[in-house]
Automatic annotation (TrEMBL), chain A:
Stored Pfam families: NifU_N (PF01592)
Domain of life: Bacteria
Molecular function in Gene Ontology: iron ion binding; iron-sulfur cluster binding
Domain annotation NIF system FeS cluster assembly NifU N-terminal: ranges: 6-128
Record's protein name: Iron-sulfur cluster assembly scaffold protein NifU
InterPro entries to which the protein is assigned, alphabetical: NIF_FeS_clus_asmbl_NifU_N (IPR002871)
CDD domains in UniProt: IscU_like (cd06664)
GO biological process terms held by the UniProt record: iron-sulfur cluster assembly
Organism ancestry: Bacteria, Bacillati, Actinomycetota, Actinomycetes, Streptosporangiales
Automatic annotation (TrEMBL), chain B:
Enzyme's top EC category: transferase
Cofactor: pyridoxal 5'-phosphate
PANTHER family cross-referenced by the UniProt entry: CYSTEINE DESULFURASE (PTHR43586), CYSTEINE DESULFURASE 1, CHLOROPLASTIC (PTHR43586:SF8)
Domain Aminotransferase class V: 28-407
Annotated source species: Planobispora longispora
Name by which UniProt lists this protein: Cysteine desulfurase
Family according to the record: Belongs to the class-V pyridoxal-phosphate-dependent aminotransferase family. Csd subfamily.
Lineage: Bacteria, Bacillati, Actinomycetota, Actinomycetes, Streptosporangiales
Length: 145, 419
């Protein structure tokens, strides 16, 4: 049914086998975000290199499949990319999540993150999907300052 | 009243139970601990009051005003009888259990109060427990912050029982009030009121029960319990939302300062002071939730006509069935007592490696099974057990063993999806 389509194979795969999980040194900024309604939480570190390069996004946390898979996908997309490129993904992902299922996702920008499109139909779960991305945005802002 | 409990007949009283969910799934409502569904007897009584009896209460000198006041006050009388209160004047209508708990908390440490039982300051102590709903935690935290008093906690054992091993060290001459759940909204545990009360009386403190999860499910008699205050909420007892109840001994209501000020709670108002109406009106400032109170009156009539002992017995059988059936789901751990002794029909659990949000979503979406997932407004209790969240199934008079089978089938499927 609808929820089953939310749990895309890619999401379940990332949930069962998270990529890049665990906090690593060195890092430029560390943030801790929680979702007060359900208790999902994430600690995230970013390490930036020359030319705006994102050298590493490491994280640890607990929560539902959606929040944990989102962090894993984010790690894959962001690591090795640039701050500018990843901020574009954050924006598109946020637009998709806040679109109540009515927004046509831009797959070229989102890459694997497009698998979360179905989550937007479940208002209660949107915050789960956004948790890691909001933490990432916050960490970038802090490492710049 | 002692006829066989006919759950199919009862289900027919609740219109929502025969609706279908999108996709043609039947509704399996296992979330009554959160809020219960309503029988047409309640819906009709409220509709009729709105349609042909409605006016403000207590202040209108006309037929409708008299009818509305009569309905409102007779709801108070029904509620008083339902919980065994010696007088209907001991029943204060609030908007929910949370407001009833706050009302009592605000009686303490109030500079306009004169009664020594309600003074509070540094050195005084308030005792609650780790298994409380946030509504029976935060008002006392705020009171402690306002007055400098200390908030102390009963622990909870690994089995989900109130830990009474340090009762005498916890409840002492410094204690002014002990407030605990009659029945836990997460564990299902029914707390040993008499044992705690005995100590409370020894030290001359007051005792409040948060009966939000007991009054809807079994016969509760405030005179027999012998505590000082008891709160519950209408929407969990087949009544509407927007109405709650504080019961307190008449003598205490008289001693307590008013909570909210406004119309209907006064006797006379001058520019520099006011005198107050006698209880319960002293605590009911402004136009009350009239139709909701009338609805609650119909709700307790409905529950009494089914019989509270019959309801309790039915829920006990459901709980027995559920504990057995859930025990066979691999990786499932019940958080709370696994025996039926002093336990109600609320079963919370974890499933190995699967987050409750994912459990709840699949149960709802594929099986139409409505459960609650999260910390159920009892975060300290979840911290105590070292878990962020649980899945909770809670039963009521209209639930059936077949619905528990649906839950269990759903859980097996959840395990397949996330295996
Ligand atoms: C044990 C307990 N206390 C208090 C409450 C609060 O009830 P209400 O939200 O109606 O104030 C609830 C229910 O949410 C509860 O289960």
């Amino acid at each position: 049914m609808i929820a089953e389509s939310m749990y895309q194979e890619l999401i379940l795969e990332h949930y069962k086998h998270p990529q890049g999980r665990g906090l690593r040194d060195p890092f430029d900024a560390e943030v801790h975000h929680v979702n007060p309604t359900c208790g999902d939480e994430i600690t995230m570190r970013v390490r930036l290199g020359d030319g705006d390069k994102v050298e590493d996004v490491s994280y640890d946390g607990q929560g539902c499949s959606i929040s944990q898979a989102a962090a894993s996908v984010l790690h894959e997309l962001a690591t090795g990319s640039t701050v500018g490129e990843t901020l574009a993904v954050v924006d598109e992902f946020t637009r998709l999540m806040q679109g109540r299922g009515q927004v046509e996702p831009d797959e070229d920008v989102l890459g694997d993150a497009v698998a979360f499109a179905g989550v937007a139909k479940f208002p209660a779960r949107v915050k789960c999907a956004l948790l890691a991305w909001m933490a990432y945005k916050d960490a970038l802002a802090r490492s710049a300052s | 009243m002692d006829t066989v409990f006919d759950v199919e007949r009862i289900r027919k009283d609740f219109p929502v139970l025969s609706r279908e969910l999108p996709g043609g799934r039947p509704l399996v409502y296992l979330d009554s601990g959160n809020s219960s569904q309503k029988p047409f007897q309640v819906i009709e009584t409220m509709r009729e009051h709105l349609a042909v009896h409605y006016a403000n209460v207590g202040r209108a000198m006309h037929v409708l005003g008299a009818e509305s006041t009569e309905a409102y006050e007779s709801a108070r009388e029904k509620v008083a009888a339902f919980v065994g209160a010696p007088s209907r004047d001991e029943i204060v209508f609030t908007k929910n259990a949370s407001e009833a708990l706050n009302l009592v908390a605000y009686a303490f440490g109030n500079p306009i109060n004169e009664d020594p039982r309600f003074t509070m300051g540094p050195g005084d102590e308030i005792v609650i427990s780790e298994m409380e709903h946030h509504s029976n935690i935060v008002p006392w935290q705020l009171l402690a912050r306002r007055t400098g008093a200390t908030l102390r906690w009963f622990s909870v054992t690994d089995e989900g029982r109130l830990d009474l091993s340090d009762l005498d060290e916890l409840v002492t001459e410094r204690t002014k009030i002990v407030s605990i759940a009659h029945q836990s909204n997460v564990l299902g545990t029914v707390n040993p009121v008499a044992r705690v009360l005995e100590r409370v009386r020894q030290v001359g403190a007051l005792m409040m029960l948060d009966a939000s999860q007991s009054v809807p499910h079994k016969a509760v008699d405030v005179a027999a319990l012998d505590v000082d205050f008891l709160a519950f909420t209408g929407h969990k007892a087949v009544g509407p939302s927007g109405i709650g109840v504080l019961w307190a001994r008449a003598e205490l209501l008289e001693a307590m300062p008013p909570f909210l000020g406004g119309g209907e709670m006064i006797e006379a108002v001058w520019m520099d002071r006011s005198t107050y109406a006698p209880a319960p009106h002293k605590f009911e400032a402004g136009t009350p939730p009239i139709v909701e109170a009338v609805g609650l009156g119909a709700a307790v009539d409905y529950l009494s006509s089914v019989g509270m002992d019959a309801i309790a017995a039915h829920e006990r059988e459901l709980t027995r069935y559920a504990l057995e059936a859930l025990g066979e789901v691999p990786g499932l751990r019940v958080v709370g007592p696994t025996d039926l002794e002093d336990r109600g029909g609320t079963v919370s659990f974890t499933l190995d490696g699967i987050h409750p949000h994912d459990v709840g979503q699949i149960l709802d979406d594929e099986f139409g099974v409505a459960v609650r997932v999260g910390h159920h407004c009892a975060r300290p209790l979840h911290l105590r057990f070292g878990i962020p969240a649980t899945t909770r199934a809670s039963f009521y008079l209209y639930n059936t063993p077949a619905e528990i089978d649906a839950l269990v089938r759903g859980l097996h499927h959840v395990r397949k999806v996330f295996a």
